[in-house]
Write a structure and sequence with these properties.
Chain A: InterPro entries: GvpL/GvpF (IPR009430). Chain A: It comes from Prauserella cavernicola. Chain A: It holds the Pfam family GvpL_GvpF. Chain A: Keywords: Gas vesicle. Chain A: This is GvpL/GvpF family gas vesicle protein. The complex is a heterodimer of chains A (about 260) and B (about 130). Chain A is an alpha+beta fold. Chain A has two domains: about 110 residues, no CATH class; about 130 residues, Alpha-Beta Plaits (2-Layer Sandwich), CATH 3.30.70. Helices cover about 40% and strands about 25% of the residues of chain A. Chain A is built from seven helices and ten strands. The N terminus of chain A is likely disordered. With about 130 residues, chain B is mainly alpha-helical. Helix content of chain B is about 40%, strand content about 0%. Chain B is elongated. The N terminus of chain B is likely disordered. The chains are: A alpha+beta (about 260), B mainly alpha (about 130). β2 of chain A pairs antiparallel with β1 of chain B, so a sheet runs across the interface.
Chain lengths: ~260, ~130
């Protein structure tokens, strides 16, 4: 038994993700931590782990940590397939990475990476312009227009129920529009990518939020179709395309055996 | 191959891929990706994580009242460009209400982005490929 001889400045390895072993890290690249250590590769056979040394005594999760985790993986995803680990994966040392992580799961990592070769994740995120979507709803729904008039003609206290009813109607209508606009986006994207994952809305005015797995070489085509959609929705939905990103939405953790 | 990176939130319209802001990152890396404990059991190092999960959107009366208030503000004629005093006051209330009703996380995200400075824009390549298997 070895009990912590060195409790101070105990270092550990932060693991970002798994890549093919022919990837080389940029000697200038730095990872999570203060001061940050270089990003290195721990290799075993055909697979390697993207890691950097961190101080095991410092809590993780500051904004800079989160951004750095994503940045390391996303920058890699443009040049090589990568299996991203969820934020916060820390292992004792290089031996542990080689033996427990890479050797133990070599074949499944290799085949997953082969499947991802040339592909990366992109996120399509659209948000309704508040004024535009409200005008649209008021012009389409007699009930919304009626409630609006009622709210305007009554004193604030008396109109409270109508205000809540109006807001609820708007909220539900936006949800229905979100579903329609998401379906439309899925249709548009289907031809341009390999797989799609519709994400849960995280904002009340989200119009569409989804991740897609596409060929990096066909990014131009993706930009074109998303651009067309954005043009169609100009003034109504602010559409963003993020990527190339690591395929966070398309890797699945194996279930523990037993 | 260079990573196509453009500052997000440009002046309207669509201008190609943009880089991820902190809010985008949080949506992605905290609950997606491979979970290390499924692969490594013995040598895990338990490091305290500061992150919290606060992203769920729950529609509430608060949301409804906010929408109703926004409808109320719509009544200013859209093509009336001349700003009189009432309009200016409207602007002020609008601004006030907006910052008040902004989700806690979103507001925090903005602050943190400020704090991070230009980090988002100078995304760099951290790895390159020696060869590609055919």
């Amino acid at each position: 038994m070895t009990t912590g001889e060195q409790t101070e400045h105990r270092t550990a390895l932060y693991v970002y993700g798994i890549v093919p072993s022919d990837v080389e890290s940029d000697p200038e690249a730095r990872g999570i931590g203060d001061p940050p250590s270089p990003i290195t590769l721990v290799k075993h056979g055909d697979v390697a782990a993207l890691v950097s040394e961190i101080d095991a005594g410092t809590p993780l999760g500051k904004p800079a940590d989160l951004s750095m985790h994503a940045q390391v993986l996303d920058a890699t995803s443009g040049v090589a397939p990568v299996l991203p680990l969820r934020f916060g994966a820390v292992v004792a040392g290089e031996d542990a990475v080689t033996e427990e992580l890479l050797a133990e799961h070599h074949d499944e990592f290799r085949s997953a990476l082969e499947e991802l070769e040339g592909k990366a994740q992109y996120v399509v995120k659209g948000r309704y312009d508040e004024q535009a979507i409200l005008r649209e709803i008021l012009s389409e729904s007699d009930e919304a227009a009626r409630l609006r008039d009622s709210v305007n003609s009554l004193p604030e206290d008396a109109a409270r129920n109508d205000r809540i009813a109006l807001g609820e109607l708007i909220n539900n209508t936006i949800a229905a529009k979100r579903e329609q606009d998401t379906s439309r986006t899925v249709e548009v994207l289907e031809g341009a990518c390999v797989a799609l994952n519709v994400r849960e809305a995280t904002h009340e005015r989200d119009a569409v939020y989804l991740a897609c797995l596409c060929e990096v070489a066909e990014q131009d085509e993706l930009e074109r179709v998303v651009g067309e959609l954005a043009q169609d929705w100009e003034g109504r939905v602010e559409l963003r395309l993020l990527g190339p990103l690591a395929p966070y939405d398309f890797v699945v953790t194996q279930q523990p055996q037993g | 191959m260079t990573t196509a990176v453009q500052p997000s939130g440009g002046g309207g319209g669509f201008s190609g891929p943009s880089s991820s802001g902190l809010a985008d990152v949080i949506d992605t890396i905290l609950d997606k990706g491979l979970v290390i404990d499924a692969y490594v059991r013995v040598s895990l190092v338990g490091i305290e994580l500061l992150t919290i999960d606060a992203r769920i959107v729950v529609a509430s009366v608060d949301t409804y009242l906010r929408f109703a208030e926004a409808v109320n503000r719509l009544d200013i004629p859209a093509n009336d460009q001349q700003k009189g005093l009432p309009d200016l006051m409207q602007d002020m209330t609008e601004g006030g209400a907006k910052s008040k009703t902004k989700g806690a996380l979103e507001a925090a995200g903005e602050k943190l982005t400020d704090f991070l400075g230009a980090d988002d824009d100078e995304e760099r390549q951290t790895a390159r490929r020696k060869r590609r298997d055919g």
